[in-house]
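Figure 6 in text form: structure in, sequence out.
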């Protein structure tokens, strides 16, 4: 298989002038590039001579291969380019005969990385051509030479990326060879290959994503039963918190608790727990579960239910272990397939898609490890609990044997294997569960995790000097300054930045803070625009050097933002810097300070900011006879109107009355409190309710001039006003929305409402529509299915208020076998019954600016 020729390739296309070129470079003859310019016949001839070759590109799966195949098929490459780039179409939509041309394409693209970024990491030249892609005239000879030179450069860089990722490339070939797949499969992703190799049959997915099955050999101590219960609560059958449109930072649904003295976070993405920002020394023991997820998939029956023969997966695992024991390299492709089997369970485009099995695997791993930690917590100090392992510290070597004895029973029962490492003189430097150094003080060997300390490769070589300095400090006790001042290669100090599509450009200049519309903004005067999107930046001590800023256009106005993690004064070097030494104007102190800051982050506990406002307000409520006294205390303690308003809207002061009454009274309190005099003009302007005006007038004296009311008894007036106001609520949606914002839950109840009135907390419509709803009458929460054809007519969204008109009982579905083609045979599960919504009224929807009740409910 490796006897095939390997060519790096890359297209350049100037669609406005119908000009294209293709450069191909043989991996073994990199000094002999072949460039084809606007010559379809030459491309056909080359392809016919090298049909069995492997063509390696960067983003070639999405772009270059379709230009290649399209030109072979006689399609104008300019048309293909514009459809791909300008209109975002898929290649197969444009080149209908793509499958006719068997191009062995291999894409070396790395996630979230452009080729120019990788070139920068490797220290190569990253300047871009001066010829714009939207040029609309004939190219000059000089421009053609420049385009070809850059084209050749990019192909050579693509081959360098291949060199750095050769293990992945060879594994892909090994998978093709070992499983005797057609070379047409070589263009597939590893996930696609894994699904094919595993024998997945593309078929219907059951609607049971959150019907969690607990691991069968779990023996959870009673004190941690609440963790299991958390997954079974209807409100937790969602990946996101209520009213969140998507899963983003701080919106994922999680259980935060303490296990074995370790703060832990549980959820649908794994278990993460650690004692942060500490250094632990002594006898350290690490226990990692070997192949945790594949083992759970086999032991618990959690593999994809779309596999034609699930037993094949177990046989593959056993075969891989045999080959690994024999140190046979053929175990590598098997390892890739086995490890891919979990990830593709939630890949909706994979034939293995089976999300409930993914959740089952993830939760089973968390619960099993929690149980093990619970059984060890009285014997040792638990330092970390992660997705597939536990780190502990013991007092004596005899305790190590006790830990292993307890673990042995757990291993036997769960059928999981623990891999132990014992550090008799160990040191764990732990920032958090994802950033740490574990050091053997006897021999200096260490293992590490996290961006600040990981061992960088040639294709993620960003600020390597900082990683080196931090590791030397913690592992070898070498001062930061010594590491940095003794390093002479410029590439060690590089910071690579990339401009994203959110910004219009980047400038090199001096930024100054200014006030614009009362807000702090950065302005850059006389900045030099930089045409490249990727730059290599270094700190400078030269007084005339400047900073680098991103340009953004907001509402037609230009604004600037300093590029993150770059110095105020810097110089840019986008040339080839391999072998270049450090200049005398490099600001070494900048890097010393940055490394020390990273060390500080490792050792300094983050200050936990707790909003004491709820506790303060509760204390005020406990010590106030009425709402007037409550507001008086808020006023004297600096609780602002804006801060208080959220809690009033959230109905936190219901002991005094309903939300509309309290909010209205709060406004009158703001106008009158502490005022012994109010002008007639102010009264007419601020108070529009005549009844309220009369109360104020009755509690004051009109001045002789008739322009003001003096001797105002504001306390009496406010108490009378409070008694006068009607006790009503604001729109219930606003109350519940604010409760979710403040507490991530709804507390509102109105017993006068029908028990059919529900507030939609979460919606999910992937396999079939499912919703989490809150009963506005009694506070009940349900995880509810909705009839698919009904939901299609009137889709629901988070925050809707609905009346459930009709429901029907339906049995769940279960798999009772497979037919000869591997399709699941589905039958009703009479032991499990679901209530399915078949008709509902849409009572309220938040339409953004127009938050209003729907006058005539939409019925579905």
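Output sequence:
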């Amino acid at each position: 298989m490796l006897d095939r020729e390997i060519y790096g390739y890359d297209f350049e296309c100037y669609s406005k002038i119908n000009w294209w070129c293709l450069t191909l470079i043989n991996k073994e003859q990199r000094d002999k590039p072949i460039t084809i310019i606007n010559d379809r016949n030459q491309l056909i001839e080359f392809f016919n001579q090298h049909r069995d070759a492997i063509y390696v590109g960067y983003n070639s799966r999405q772009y270059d291969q379709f230009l290649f195949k399209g030109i072979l098929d006689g399609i104008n490459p300019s048309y293909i380019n514009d459809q791909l780039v300008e209109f975002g179409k898929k290649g197969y939509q444009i080149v209908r005969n793509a499958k006719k041309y068997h191009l062995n394409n291999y894409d070396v693209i790395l996630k979230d990385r452009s080729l120019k970024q990788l070139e920068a990491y490797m220290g190569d030249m990253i300047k871009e051509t001066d010829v714009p892609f939207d040029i609309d005239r004939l190219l000059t000879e000089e421009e053609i030479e420049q385009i070809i030179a850059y084209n050749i450069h990019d192909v050579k860089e693509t081959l360098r990326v291949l060199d750095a990722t050769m293990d992945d490339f060879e594994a892909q070939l090994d998978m093709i060879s070992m499983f005797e797949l057609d070379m047409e499969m070589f263009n597939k992703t590893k996930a696609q290959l894994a699904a094919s190799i595993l024998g997945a049959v593309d078929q219907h997915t059951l609607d049971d994503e959150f019907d969690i099955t607990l691991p069968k050999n779990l023996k959870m101590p009673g004190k941690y039963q609440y963790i299991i219960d958390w997954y079974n609560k209807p409100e937790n059958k969602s990946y996101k918190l209520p009213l969140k449109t998507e899963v983003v930072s701080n919106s994922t649904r999680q259980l935060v608790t303490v296990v074995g003295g370790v703060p832990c976070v549980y959820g649908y993405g794994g278990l993460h727990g650690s004692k942060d920002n500490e250094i632990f020394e002594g006898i350290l023991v690490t226990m990692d579960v070997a192949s945790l997820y594949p083992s759970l998939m086999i032991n618990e029956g959690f593999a994809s239910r779309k596999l034609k023969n699930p037993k094949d997966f177990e046989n593959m695992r056993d075969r891989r272990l045999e080959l690994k024991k024999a140190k046979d390299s053929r175990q590598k492709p098997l390892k890739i397939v086995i490890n891919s089997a979990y990830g593709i369970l939630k890949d909706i485009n994979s034939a293995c898609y089976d999300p409930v099995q993914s959740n089952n695997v993830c939760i089973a791993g968390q619960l099993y490890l929690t149980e093990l930690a619970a059984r060890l917590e009285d014997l040792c100090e638990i330092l970390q609990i992660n997705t597939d392992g536990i780190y502990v510290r013991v007092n004596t070597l005899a305790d190590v044997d006790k830990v292993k004895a307890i673990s042995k029973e757990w291993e036997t029962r769960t059928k999981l294997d623990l891999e132990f490492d014992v550090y008799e003189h160990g040191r764990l430097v732990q920032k958090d569960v994802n950033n740490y150094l574990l050091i053997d003080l006897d021999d200096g060997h260490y293992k590490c995790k996290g961006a600040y300390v990981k061992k960088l490769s040639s294709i993620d070589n960003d600020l390597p000097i900082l990683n080196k300095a931090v590791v030397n400090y913690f592992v070898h006790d070498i001062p930061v300054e010594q590491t940095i001042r003794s390093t002479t290669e410029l590439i060690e100090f590089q910071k690579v930045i990339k401009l994203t599509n959110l910004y219009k450009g980047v400038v090199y200049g001096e930024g100054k803070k200014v006030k614009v519309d009362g807000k702090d903004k950065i302005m850059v005067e006389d900045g030099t625009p930089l045409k490249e999107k990727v730059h290599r930046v270094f700190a400078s001590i030269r007084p005339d050097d400047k900073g680098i800023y991103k340009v953004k256009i907001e509402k037609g106005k230009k604004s600037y933002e300093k590029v993150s993690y770059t110095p105020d004064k810097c110089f840019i070097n986008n040339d080839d810097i391999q072998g270049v030494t450090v200049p005398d104007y490099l600001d070494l102190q900048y890097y010393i300070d940055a490394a020390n800051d990273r060390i500080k982050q490792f050792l300094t506990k983050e200050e936990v900011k707790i909003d004491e406002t709820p506790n303060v307000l509760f204390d005020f409520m406990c010590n106030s006879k009425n709402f007037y006294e409550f507001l008086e205390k808020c006023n004297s303690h600096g609780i602002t109107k804006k801060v208080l308003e959220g809690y009033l809207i959230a109905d936190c002061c219901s002991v005094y009355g309903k939300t509309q009454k309290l909010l209205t009274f709060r406004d009158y309190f703001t106008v009158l409190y502490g005022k012994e005099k109010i002008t007639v003009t102010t009264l007419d302007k601020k108070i529009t309710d005549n009844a309220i005006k009369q109360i104020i007038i009755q509690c004051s004296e009109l001045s002789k001039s008739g322009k003001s009311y003096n001797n105002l008894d504001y306390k009496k007036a406010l108490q009378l006003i409070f008694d006068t106001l009607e006790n009503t609520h604001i729109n219930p949606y606003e109350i519940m929305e604010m409760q979710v914002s403040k507490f991530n839950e709804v507390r509102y109840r109105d017993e006068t409402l029908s028990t059919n009135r529900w507030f939609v907390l979460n919606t999910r419509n992937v396999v079939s529509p499912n919703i989490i709803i809150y009963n506005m009458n009694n506070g009940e929460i349900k995880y509810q299915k909705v009839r698919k054809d009904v939901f299609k007519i009137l889709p629901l969204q988070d925050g809707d208020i609905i009346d459930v008109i009709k429901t029907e009982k339906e049995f769940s579905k279960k798999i009772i076998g497979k037919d000869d083609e591997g399709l699941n045979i589905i039958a009703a599960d009479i032991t499990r019954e679901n209530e399915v919504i078949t008709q509902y009224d849409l009572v309220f929807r938040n339409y953004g600016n127009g938050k209003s009740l729907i006058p005539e409910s939409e019925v579905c």
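Caption detail: Residues 222-449 form a domain with the Palm domain of DNA polymerase fold (CATH 3.90.1600.10).
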